[in-house]
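$ ./design --mode recover --in tokens.txt
reading tokens...
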């Protein structure tokens, strides 16, 4: 137990620091863990503790960069900038941070209880799923990430197919022959996960932030305590805005492949829609704007564990990284073996709850001091993170091939971002490529094409998928783009 608590504390500190670094967030922090996985092979549950603590603390920590620097700690806190940074420029940065921390924590605990504590009770339903049901759930997952998470659905479809193709590179599971390797022996075992994740998710954001100058707003030390209490009061006064954001975040978190910034932006748009007559316009420092989107923040993270753990379909890119980390140490999410593992569920539950309760006082204590971190120019953080990411990605062989494949995916990730092709769609396609191939093969071998339509669960999932596609093509106008 002492060892578990030690890793929890280390994870909380590490995650909070990663959250403070602009554009880093949970994804970058988790990617950096791959070279350290040997520490967790003997007890994989230690990795559950460590990663959960990182996700919780980085989620709260990344609000600091959004509010004080107008640059998101991660994509999920981008909406917080719209009203958080104007408040900081008006000298109310501590108030905005306090409201964000309070709202995010309350909803994180509330929806964490509803989602995580009941996970073991959802598991028997999932175990009863057959191949047709799993096939339809995979279709639903791809439909959500294509038609809801991004308004450019044609490009999202392209991203999914490219991801599936890249994931299929390596050895054909049926013939054991090399597939799509182009004669390069290095690709015989497939494209390594780490350079793909770092190149597509982390480096494009780092490079973009490097090219833009940001300066932090200084928190006035003599006013911090009063503003903290004011932010806490704001959270309770405007409780409906926070709770509505939490409901939206929790609902979107359960949709496979969506998560992240989508929940925050929809929560922010609904806050604006419900508060039409405001003395302080949204975008100019309205505290409700901070509370509304931060309500979705931790709620989405908590409910995102439902599709990730139960079905092995990541709810957001950071969940895809967690899945990859767990596989290395022998924990494969979505499998019957794991769904019967009550120790896994117990460790996940209590780690999440303790992490929430410990991170909050830590965040409040650091409000008056954390602005010193932002005095360090982002260009310094850029080179530190770049060095760590490169070091992590070249551990596979240590030779030039590792550097070449990383350079390729950095260029590829930047190209996806520039062309507007959903990088989340690509990552989901890449991570699930083996699953979709296996399920398709099993379905073709054991079932008829129409079996989907004569089984109640698979038929229901298919109908929901069709509804998602129709909504995404014709009615999905809820996304907000903030530049």
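writing sequence...
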């Amino acid at each position: 137990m002492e060892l578990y608590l030690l890793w929890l504390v280390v994870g909380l500190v590490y995650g909070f620091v990663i959250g403070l670094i602009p554009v880093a967030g949970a994804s970058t922090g988790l990617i950096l863990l791959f070279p350290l996985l040997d520490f967790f092979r003997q007890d994989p549950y230690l990795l559950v503790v460590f990663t959960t603590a990182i996700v919780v603390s980085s989620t709260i920590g990344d609000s600091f960069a959004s509010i004080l620097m107008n640059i998101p700690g991660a994509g999920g806190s981008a909406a917080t900038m719209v009203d958080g940074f104007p408040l900081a420029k008006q000298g109310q940065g501590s108030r905005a941070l306090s409201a964000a921390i309070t709202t995010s924590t309350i909803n994180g605990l509330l929806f964490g209880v509803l989602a995580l504590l009941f996970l073991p009770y959802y598991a028997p339903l999932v175990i009863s799923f057959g191949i047709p049901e799993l096939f339809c759930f995979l279709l639903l997952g791809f439909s959500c990430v294509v038609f809801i998470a991004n308004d450019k659905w044609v490009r999202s479809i392209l991203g999914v197919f490219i991801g599936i193709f890249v994931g299929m590179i390596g050895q054909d599971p049926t013939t054991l022959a090399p597939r799509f390797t182009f004669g390069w022996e290095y690709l015989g075992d497939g494209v390594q996960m780490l350079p793909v994740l770092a190149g597509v998710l982390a480096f494009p954001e780092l490079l973009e932030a490097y090219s833009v100058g940001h300066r932090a707003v200084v928190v006035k030390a003599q006013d911090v305590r009063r503003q903290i209490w004011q932010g806490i009061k704001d959270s309770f006064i405007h409780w409906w805005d926070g709770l509505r954001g939490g409901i939206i975040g929790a609902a979107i978190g359960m949709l496979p492949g969506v998560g992240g910034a989508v929940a925050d932006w929809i929560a922010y748009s609904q806050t604006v829609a419900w508060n039409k007559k405001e003395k302080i316009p949204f975008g100019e420092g309205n505290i409700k704007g901070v509370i509304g989107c931060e309500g979705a923040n931790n709620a989405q993270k908590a409910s995102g564990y439902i599709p990730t753990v139960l079905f092995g379909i990541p709810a957001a890119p950071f969940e895809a990284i967690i899945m990859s980390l767990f596989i290395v140490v022998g924990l494969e999410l979505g499998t019957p073996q794991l769904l019967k593992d009550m120790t896994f569920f117990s460790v996940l539950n209590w780690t999440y709850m303790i992490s929430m309760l410990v991170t909050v006082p830590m965040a409040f204590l650091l409000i008056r001091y954390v602005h010193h971190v932002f005095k360090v120019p982002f260009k310094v953080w850029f080179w530190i993170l770049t060095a760590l990411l490169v070091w992590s990605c070249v551990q596979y062989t240590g030779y030039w091939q590792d550097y070449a494949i990383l350079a390729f995916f950095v260029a590829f990730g930047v190209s996806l971002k520039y062309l507007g092709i959903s990088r989340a769609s690509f990552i989901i396609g890449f991570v699930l490529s083996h699953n979709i191939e296996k399920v398709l093969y099993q379905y073709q071998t054991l079932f008829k094409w129409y079996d989907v339509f004569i089984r109640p669960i698979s038929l229901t999932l298919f109908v929901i998928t069709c509804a998602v596609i129709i909504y995404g093509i014709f009615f999905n106008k809820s996304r907000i783009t903030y530049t």
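exit 0
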